[in-house]
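Methods — Computational structure assignment.
A single polypeptide chain was analysed. Its primary sequence is given first, followed by the predicted tertiary structure written as structure tokens.
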Amino acid sequence: MTMIKPSGGLPPKVSNWVDPDDAPPLTEAFFGHADTYIGDRLVKRGRPKKADPKQRVTLRLDADLLATLRQTGPGWQSAVNALLRRAMTLPDSETANPSASYLER
């Protein structure tokens, strides 16, 4: 801790400045959290981007229909996607949830 004595007879201030030479050593754990580059390109972490991601849309549905769909629980939006694909005679997508009860009707 460094004491700084201001002019004018005021009490000294305490500074929390830390000498950069007192920095902790660079360990394997530190570098484990570092960004990785290949050439000048940053290598992103996490799930890779899909080649054909789903699109966000606004769709107006009857209230009772929406309530019925939502009552099926988590995954209802994926199940609606599968239901629409079947109605349009498109092949099933890999993310469809065919276990929803209303799809079996």
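Note: Residues 63-104 form one domain.
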